[in-house]
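Here is one chain, start to finish.
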Amino acid sequence: MRSVAALAATMSVALSAHAVPVTWEARGVIESSTLDALFFETFMPELAGTTAGDTFRLRIRFDTDAARNDPVILPDGGRTRSFDATSLVMTLVVPGRGTHVFTIDRSVPTGTHSLIGIVDDQVVGDLVRDGVQFQHNYLTPEGLLLFQVFAAFFTADTSVIDDLCLPMTPDPQLGTGIERLLSIHANPPELGDLSGLITSLVRVPEPGSLALFAAGLCVLWAVRRQAAIA
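Its structure:
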Protein backbone atom coordinates (compact mmCIF):
# COMPACT_ATOMS: atom_id res chain seq x y z
CA MET A 1 0.00 0.00 0.00
CA ARG A 2 2.89 2.35 0.74
CA SER A 3 4.24 1.77 -2.76
CA VAL A 4 0.84 2.54 -4.27
CA ALA A 5 0.48 5.71 -2.20
CA ALA A 6 3.97 6.87 -3.14
CA LEU A 7 3.27 6.19 -6.81
CA ALA A 8 0.00 8.14 -6.68
CA ALA A 9 1.71 11.09 -5.03
CA THR A 10 4.51 11.08 -7.59
CA MET A 11 2.06 10.97 -10.49
CA SER A 12 0.00 13.78 -8.97
CA VAL A 13 3.00 16.07 -8.66
CA ALA A 14 4.21 15.24 -12.16
CA LEU A 15 0.80 15.81 -13.69
CA SER A 16 0.53 19.17 -11.98
CA ALA A 17 3.95 20.16 -13.25
CA HIS A 18 2.89 19.42 -16.83
CA ALA A 19 -0.58 20.97 -16.59
CA VAL A 20 0.22 24.62 -17.36
CA PRO A 21 -0.37 24.31 -21.14
CA VAL A 22 -3.98 23.20 -21.46
CA THR A 23 -6.35 22.42 -24.31
CA TRP A 24 -10.09 22.97 -24.29
CA GLU A 25 -12.34 21.51 -26.97
CA ALA A 26 -15.58 23.23 -27.94
CA ARG A 27 -18.09 21.53 -30.20
CA GLY A 28 -20.98 23.12 -31.99
CA VAL A 29 -22.71 23.96 -35.24
CA ILE A 30 -22.26 26.75 -37.78
CA GLU A 31 -25.36 28.93 -37.58
CA SER A 32 -24.56 31.24 -40.49
CA SER A 33 -21.78 32.18 -42.89
CA THR A 34 -21.61 34.94 -45.47
CA LEU A 35 -17.86 34.61 -46.07
CA ASP A 36 -17.30 34.27 -49.80
CA ALA A 37 -15.11 31.82 -51.71
CA LEU A 38 -12.32 34.39 -52.14
CA PHE A 39 -12.08 34.89 -48.36
CA PHE A 40 -11.70 31.15 -47.78
CA GLU A 41 -9.21 30.84 -50.64
CA THR A 42 -7.11 33.69 -49.27
CA PHE A 43 -7.12 33.00 -45.54
CA MET A 44 -8.30 29.46 -44.81
CA PRO A 45 -8.54 27.33 -47.96
CA GLU A 46 -8.80 24.14 -45.89
CA LEU A 47 -12.29 25.19 -44.78
CA ALA A 48 -13.63 26.19 -48.19
CA GLY A 49 -17.33 25.49 -48.52
CA THR A 50 -18.11 25.73 -44.81
CA THR A 51 -21.73 26.77 -44.44
CA ALA A 52 -24.68 26.90 -42.06
CA GLY A 53 -25.53 23.50 -40.61
CA ASP A 54 -21.94 22.19 -40.61
CA THR A 55 -20.72 20.86 -37.27
CA PHE A 56 -17.33 21.92 -35.94
CA ARG A 57 -14.74 21.23 -33.28
CA LEU A 58 -12.64 24.08 -31.95
CA ARG A 59 -9.53 23.21 -29.94
CA ILE A 60 -8.19 26.10 -27.86
CA ARG A 61 -4.67 25.65 -26.50
CA PHE A 62 -3.26 28.25 -24.14
CA ASP A 63 -0.97 28.73 -21.16
CA THR A 64 -2.73 29.22 -17.82
CA ASP A 65 0.52 30.62 -16.42
CA ALA A 66 0.78 33.31 -19.12
CA ALA A 67 1.91 36.80 -18.12
CA ARG A 68 -1.05 38.81 -16.90
CA ASN A 69 -1.97 42.47 -16.80
CA ASP A 70 -3.35 44.18 -13.72
CA PRO A 71 -7.11 43.82 -13.19
CA VAL A 72 -9.31 46.54 -14.65
CA ILE A 73 -12.47 47.74 -12.94
CA LEU A 74 -15.29 47.97 -15.51
CA PRO A 75 -17.33 51.20 -15.67
CA ASP A 76 -20.72 49.54 -15.11
CA GLY A 77 -19.49 47.00 -12.57
CA GLY A 78 -17.23 43.96 -12.41
CA ARG A 79 -13.60 43.31 -13.22
CA THR A 80 -11.58 42.03 -16.15
CA ARG A 81 -8.01 40.96 -16.82
CA SER A 82 -6.08 40.17 -19.99
CA PHE A 83 -3.24 37.69 -20.47
CA ASP A 84 -0.38 37.34 -22.92
CA ALA A 85 -1.73 35.29 -25.80
CA THR A 86 1.53 34.39 -27.54
CA SER A 87 0.86 30.72 -26.83
CA LEU A 88 -2.79 30.81 -27.96
CA VAL A 89 -3.56 28.33 -30.75
CA MET A 90 -7.10 27.77 -32.02
CA THR A 91 -7.63 24.80 -34.32
CA LEU A 92 -10.93 24.72 -36.19
CA VAL A 93 -12.07 21.37 -37.59
CA VAL A 94 -15.12 21.15 -39.83
CA PRO A 95 -15.79 17.46 -40.63
CA GLY A 96 -16.07 16.90 -44.35
CA ARG A 97 -14.29 20.21 -45.06
CA GLY A 98 -10.92 20.33 -43.36
CA THR A 99 -8.80 21.76 -40.54
CA HIS A 100 -7.28 25.22 -40.12
CA VAL A 101 -4.93 26.35 -37.35
CA PHE A 102 -5.07 29.95 -36.12
CA THR A 103 -1.91 31.13 -34.37
CA ILE A 104 -0.54 34.51 -33.38
CA ASP A 105 0.22 36.81 -36.32
CA ARG A 106 3.87 37.71 -35.79
CA SER A 107 4.02 40.01 -38.82
CA VAL A 108 2.27 42.85 -36.98
CA PRO A 109 3.20 44.85 -33.88
CA THR A 110 2.98 43.03 -30.54
CA GLY A 111 -0.19 43.70 -28.60
CA THR A 112 -2.46 44.25 -31.58
CA HIS A 113 -3.04 40.71 -32.71
CA SER A 114 -4.43 38.57 -29.92
CA LEU A 115 -6.32 38.42 -26.66
CA ILE A 116 -7.04 36.10 -23.79
CA GLY A 117 -9.42 37.73 -21.35
CA ILE A 118 -11.36 36.81 -18.24
CA VAL A 119 -14.36 38.65 -16.80
CA ASP A 120 -15.78 38.54 -13.28
CA ASP A 121 -19.21 39.93 -12.36
CA GLN A 122 -19.47 42.11 -15.46
CA VAL A 123 -22.67 44.17 -15.53
CA VAL A 124 -24.33 44.31 -18.96
CA GLY A 125 -27.70 46.03 -18.68
CA ASP A 126 -29.79 43.94 -16.30
CA LEU A 127 -27.39 40.99 -16.58
CA VAL A 128 -24.33 40.09 -14.49
CA ARG A 129 -21.97 37.58 -16.08
CA ASP A 130 -18.66 35.73 -15.78
CA GLY A 131 -16.69 34.61 -18.79
CA VAL A 132 -13.56 33.74 -20.72
CA GLN A 133 -12.74 34.88 -24.26
CA PHE A 134 -10.05 34.09 -26.82
CA GLN A 135 -9.25 36.18 -29.89
CA HIS A 136 -6.80 36.38 -32.79
CA ASN A 137 -6.65 39.47 -35.00
CA TYR A 138 -5.04 39.24 -38.45
CA LEU A 139 -3.78 42.55 -39.79
CA THR A 140 -1.95 44.02 -42.76
CA PRO A 141 1.69 45.10 -42.21
CA GLU A 142 0.29 48.62 -41.86
CA GLY A 143 -1.90 47.50 -38.95
CA LEU A 144 -5.29 47.42 -40.69
CA LEU A 145 -7.59 44.61 -39.57
CA LEU A 146 -8.19 41.88 -42.15
CA PHE A 147 -10.27 39.52 -40.05
CA GLN A 148 -10.82 38.40 -36.48
CA VAL A 149 -11.35 34.95 -34.95
CA PHE A 150 -13.18 35.04 -31.64
CA ALA A 151 -14.42 32.42 -29.17
CA ALA A 152 -16.38 33.51 -26.09
CA PHE A 153 -17.94 31.67 -23.16
CA PHE A 154 -20.17 33.61 -20.73
CA THR A 155 -22.51 32.47 -17.98
CA ALA A 156 -24.92 34.16 -15.58
CA ASP A 157 -23.53 31.97 -12.80
CA THR A 158 -21.24 34.51 -11.12
CA SER A 159 -19.54 31.86 -8.98
CA VAL A 160 -17.67 30.53 -12.02
CA ILE A 161 -14.97 33.24 -12.02
CA ASP A 162 -13.78 34.75 -8.76
CA ASP A 163 -10.00 35.25 -8.72
CA LEU A 164 -9.30 36.44 -12.31
CA CYS A 165 -6.97 33.50 -12.98
CA LEU A 166 -7.28 31.37 -16.11
CA PRO A 167 -8.89 28.04 -15.17
CA MET A 168 -7.25 24.81 -16.29
CA THR A 169 -10.58 23.05 -16.70
CA PRO A 170 -13.65 24.93 -17.97
CA ASP A 171 -16.59 25.10 -15.62
CA PRO A 172 -19.58 23.22 -17.15
CA GLN A 173 -21.56 26.46 -16.92
CA LEU A 174 -19.29 28.02 -19.54
CA GLY A 175 -20.24 25.37 -22.07
CA THR A 176 -23.97 25.82 -21.54
CA GLY A 177 -24.07 29.50 -20.61
CA ILE A 178 -25.88 32.54 -21.91
CA GLU A 179 -23.26 33.23 -24.59
CA ARG A 180 -21.03 30.56 -26.13
CA LEU A 181 -19.97 31.29 -29.64
CA LEU A 182 -17.37 31.11 -32.36
CA SER A 183 -17.18 34.00 -34.81
CA ILE A 184 -14.99 34.95 -37.74
CA HIS A 185 -15.47 38.58 -38.79
CA ALA A 186 -13.98 39.98 -41.99
CA ASN A 187 -13.06 43.63 -42.42
CA PRO A 188 -14.69 45.55 -43.95
CA PRO A 189 -17.92 43.92 -42.69
CA GLU A 190 -19.26 43.77 -46.24
CA LEU A 191 -16.90 40.82 -46.82
CA GLY A 192 -19.03 38.73 -44.49
CA ASP A 193 -18.78 36.78 -41.28
CA LEU A 194 -19.25 33.32 -39.82
CA SER A 195 -21.07 32.51 -36.59
CA GLY A 196 -21.18 29.23 -34.72
CA LEU A 197 -23.10 28.13 -31.62
CA ILE A 198 -21.06 26.11 -29.13
CA THR A 199 -22.93 23.24 -27.49
CA SER A 200 -20.20 21.70 -25.31
CA LEU A 201 -16.86 22.64 -23.78
CA VAL A 202 -14.42 20.26 -22.09
CA ARG A 203 -10.73 20.01 -21.30
CA VAL A 204 -8.70 17.61 -23.42
CA PRO A 205 -5.86 15.71 -21.68
CA GLU A 206 -2.40 16.69 -22.89
CA PRO A 207 -0.45 13.89 -24.65
CA GLY A 208 2.34 14.12 -22.07
CA SER A 209 -0.12 13.66 -19.21
CA LEU A 210 -1.66 10.62 -20.87
CA ALA A 211 1.77 9.06 -21.40
CA LEU A 212 2.71 9.73 -17.79
CA PHE A 213 -0.53 8.20 -16.57
CA ALA A 214 0.02 5.10 -18.72
CA ALA A 215 3.56 4.74 -17.40
CA GLY A 216 2.22 5.02 -13.85
CA LEU A 217 -0.28 2.23 -14.48
CA CYS A 218 2.53 0.01 -15.76
CA VAL A 219 4.60 0.65 -12.63
CA LEU A 220 1.57 -0.01 -10.44
CA TRP A 221 0.98 -3.32 -12.21
CA ALA A 222 4.65 -4.28 -11.71
CA VAL A 223 4.48 -3.43 -7.99
CA ARG A 224 1.35 -5.52 -7.48
CA ARG A 225 2.79 -8.43 -9.46
CA GLN A 226 5.98 -8.39 -7.41
CA ALA A 227 3.95 -8.33 -4.19
CA ALA A 228 1.86 -11.27 -5.37
CA ILE A 229 4.96 -13.32 -6.19
CA ALA A 230 6.49 -12.54 -2.81
